[in-house]
Amino acid sequence: GIKNVTMNEPFFVGHFPEEPVMPGVLIVEAIAQCSGILVLGTVPDPENYSTYFMKIDGAKFKRKVVPGDTLQFEIQLLEPIRRGVAVVEGKAFVGETLACEAVMMAQIVKNKQKTEQK
Question: Which residues are catalytic?
């Protein structure tokens, strides 16, 4: 996955006005969303499923992410998906430099089917 970080992002207003830095929690969320795409690619009808965080381990922030940076996400499954549980390692890079890494566990859950309205 790729994320172009621009000054237009609303979080930069308060984080921080004189020294804009992308919040680490949003970098982790971006890794999680890319992980969800990878994991849902393993089910035959991914539009009927969602992934939910169960655990985040070893999150490390190695470099500030600032406006003008492009984040590139690399995600890999660490073990086969069992009972709908996926364990992934995600890394976010700016160029060749590692900016953030984490190991995440997520549950794959079938979405509730909406009943047709008459």
Answer: 15
